[in-house]
Amino acid sequence: MSITEMSLAEYIRKRRLTLAGLELQRDGIRVIDAALKYGYDSPVSFARAFQSFHGVVPSEAKKSDVLLKSFPRMTFQIFAREVNGVRIIEKEELYLSGFLVEAKEGSNVWWRYEKDTETYAQPELIDWTAHEVRFYPADGERVFTACRQKEKVTSPHFELLIVPSISWAVFDIDHKINQKPQYDEVDKWLAENKNTYRQMKWDADGRVNESEFVICWYDHQGKFGKGRIMELWIPLEKVTA
After folding, report:
1. Cα 118 to Cα 101: distance, rounded to the nearest angstrom
2. How far apart are CA 215 and CA 93, in angstroms?
3. Which of 43, 186, 195, 164 is closest to 94 using CA atoms?
4. Phi and psi torsions of 86, nearest 5°
5. Cα–Cα separations (whole angstroms), residue 103 to 24, 116, 201, 210
6. In 3D, which of 114, 102, 105, 103 has the Cα closest to residue 147?
7. What is the pLDDT at residue 215?
8. Cβ atoms of residues 179 and 240 within 8 Å
């Protein structure tokens, strides 16, 4: 089986060597520990594969001025069309860095985010597309305002929220026109499909009371240009008999 003209085994090998190089250079782990962690039988076989990929031996990779190769993580998505253009998508784990605030504070968080990212240690790991994870517990709406990280990395400036790998119903919401009919269509779809799917509840790893939640995804400079369209992601669970 091949993925974008690359075998799955080759993709896994390159990703492991990328992560091994990151840990050697950033965290200073021992070569033998990196070899064992990333599936090599011995430091010798690891060093041979590492040099073939990065162009340097593992011990040299520990130097901060050495440039290492980086093979990006692929995102695998499975699409299926439903009525009215609704997309059912399987997404892998999402790593979001940002702040959990009361809903009324959400619109004021982005200036703080932009200011703090000026000192972010690894800006290349930030996706920069905007995500709002909106929770609806009984004690008041909460919003996790964030950008997506490409790797699971903690930062002293931001909270890290790991959204589990689940299915989502995705709706395009156009802010340039009346939004109420659009959200009515969302409610209608959920009602019509209640025997197949229900909206998942989550407690954000203990940060809020377990409640329904959604993700609002904005990419004004990418997919939608400068438009006012967002994707509304509804987390789904299969209804079992």
Report:
1. 21
2. 13
3. 164
4. -70, 135
5. 41, 20, 18, 16
6. 114
7. 93
8. no
Which residue is it, tokens 């997919």?
Answer: 223
**Percent above pLDDT 90 for the chain:** 20
Please give the pLDDT value at position 4: 47
Residue-range domains of the chain with CATH: 2-61 (1.10.10.60), 78-238 (3.20.80.10)
pLDDT tens, position by position, 126-181: 666 788 899 999 888 999 988 787 777 777 778 889 999 999 999 988 877 788 88
List per-block mean pLDDT (blocks of 10 residues) for the chain, which spans 241 residues: 57 86 87 89 89 90 81 54 65 87 70 60 66 90 84 78 92 82 88 90 93 84 56 91 63
Entry pTM: 0.59
Q: Is 191 left (phi over 0), alpha (psi -120 to 50) or beta?
A: alpha
CA 69 from chain center: how many Å? 22
Cα distance between residue 50 and residue 35, in whole Å:
10
Distance, in Å, from the CA atom of 94 to the CA atom of 148, rounded to the nearest integer, reads: 7
The encoded tokens of residue 232 equal 């509304």
* Tokens of residue 95, six digits: 């790593």
Other C-beta atoms closer than 10 Å to the C-beta of 72 total 10
Nearest-angstrom CA–CA distance, 177 and 225: 17
The pair of structure tokens assigned to 118 is 């000026």
Q: What is the H or E stretch that residue 175 is in?
A: none
What is residue 73's predicted lDDT score, i.e. its pLDDT? 66
